Every structure is written in C-alpha cells, then in structure tokens.
C-alpha cells in the first residue's frame, strides 16, 4: 500500500507535468512615462497594473535567456510564462520601470543601441544605471550601434558589402556591451522589427537569437532569428488587450510562404500561405485580420491544414501585419500568429 507522502509526491509530479509548456509570451516596452510619445509608451500606472496582473494570476516572469534556452533544448516551462523586455535604453526604464520591477522581483531584458548610451543622449540610460540594473538581475542585450533601418541598402551597394556592414554593426555593439556590463548574451532585437532573409541568415551564422516586433507568443516552431514579441504602447497596452495577449498560445505554423516580409513593388496585395501542425485550437473558428479588415481564409486542402489569406487593399509604404487567431478548446485562450509586412518607399527607404 502506498504511503500518503508517496501519493502526494506523485500527484504533485503529475500536476507539474500537466502544467508544463513549451511556449512563452515576450512583452516589448519602450518608454514607461506620462510624457513620451503615446504610440511607444505606457504610463507608470499602466505598467504597474500589468505587473500586478501577472503577480495575481499565476504567471511566471522568467529571464529571457532562460526561456530561450529551455525552448531550444525542449525543456519544459511553466504554463503562462512571460518575459519582459525594453527596447532603446530610455531613461524612463531606470526611473519608472526599474523600481516596479524590483518591487515584484521580476527579471527583465534591455535591448541597448549602444550609440545612444556612449554619446550620452538626453533620454538615454548611462552604463552606470545599466550596471545597477544588472546587479538586480537585468539582462543587457544587443539592439545594434545606431538603431538604423538595417534593411536599407545604398544605391548600387553590393549585397556582401551590405551584409558585412550589418555584421560589423551587430558585432561592435555586442563587444561594447560585453566590455561595459560583462554580458555577452548573443540576443539581438531588430531595430523597428525590420529584417529580411539574408539578414536573418547572417545573425544565425553569428550565433545570435533574433527578436522582432510582430505579435504572438514564442513556441518550439518559432523562427529563432525573428522571434515574436507583443508590443506594449498606446492602445496596444490597454488592460483588456494585455490580458488577452499574455494568455495566448502559439498557433503551430509549420510552414509559410513568402518567407520574407518585404513587399514587391509589383505586388502590393501579396498572398500569405500558412501550413498548420495539429493542436488544441478550434480550426473552424480560425480568423485572420489585416489592414483593418477581416481576411477571407482560403483552405487549400481537405484536411484544412494549409490556407491562404490576402488583403484586397494595397499595402502602403511602412510596416503592417496579418494576424491569425483561433480559440483553444475551452474558448478561454487564443492561439496566435502574426506575419509582418514591410514596404519601402520608391527610393528604397523604410519609414520610421
């Protein structure tokens, strides 16, 4: 006959396995301030509300490097695991966000564009402030040297020259971060979320994990040269939206066409084709959206595993997204996938 302690241990083990997961949500913030551009800001009150929700509703806030390590090596994560990241090394991270993070004992990552810190721009953090946060568990990662539009190529610029230039930018920033903070995490956030296949291949060869700004949770099928994050700013930081997003699951996309985000000027209404793996999602309730409209889903096979979506509107210069969601079997959580589009101007420039 089993002892009570043995039974309890088995129940705890089974419970832990039941709640083990292979996914996480990564949140992306910029400013935490009442006085910065609304589109890239949350107020301190909003940010505290976000953190309190995570604390009060059973979420595990984990350091981003640990999350990436576990997903890549197929180690289990607690369900409802979240990472908190900040881009651009703004001073409000130290003044407003850092005290709240310490209050909750939450780890976080700052993606630093090193020129801003090195040159002492007025709204940028200092290395002293960054190292103070490192001592409290912050991770300092790479956002390039100058935060430029890396997808832009000078007129007549050879592809290899362009790739060598980006390689140097990323390598230089990583070296500075290592020298100043002792960290060498090889995690790179694409400025503006912009990248193309040759650049993604480049950072893969350099041994970096890449992070974009397309929405959605991270899962085992995610592209580790451009992992999704949920941007938190303006209307996207509203509490009802936040609650939906931190509870999402990764829609299991096993293949997509095109692989690039870049829009061909001769085809400004591109077709996105996605192939799904099996999962707990309700396929009949799959819905896709883009450019402010619901997109018709065109299934290409009887099993309904591959589909196409297309907007009737032309994609304008700038950045946009197609988002697809499906509820889980309980109807309480959503599976989510986002594909971002990038259309350059006629001069080959990306818009801020």
Automatic annotation (TrEMBL):
- Classification via PROSITE patterns: NODB
Gene3D superfamilies referenced in this protein's UniProt entry, alphabetically? Glycoside hydrolase/deacetylase
Q: Which Pfam families match?
A: Polysacc_deac_1 (PF01522)
The main location class comes to secreted
Q: Does the keyword field hold ATP-binding?
A: no
Which N-terminal residues, if any, form the signal peptide? 1-20
Domain named NodB homology: residues: 80-282
> Which keywords does this chain's UniProt record carry?
Signal
Q: Which residues form a coiled coil?
A: none
User: Which residue spans traverse the membrane?
Assistant: none
Q: Does the keyword Cell membrane apply?
A: no
Q: What does the UniProt entry say about where the protein is found? A: Secreted
Q: What name has this protein been given in UniProt?
A: Polysaccharide deacetylase family protein
User: What species was this sequence derived from?
Assistant: Kistimonas scapharcae
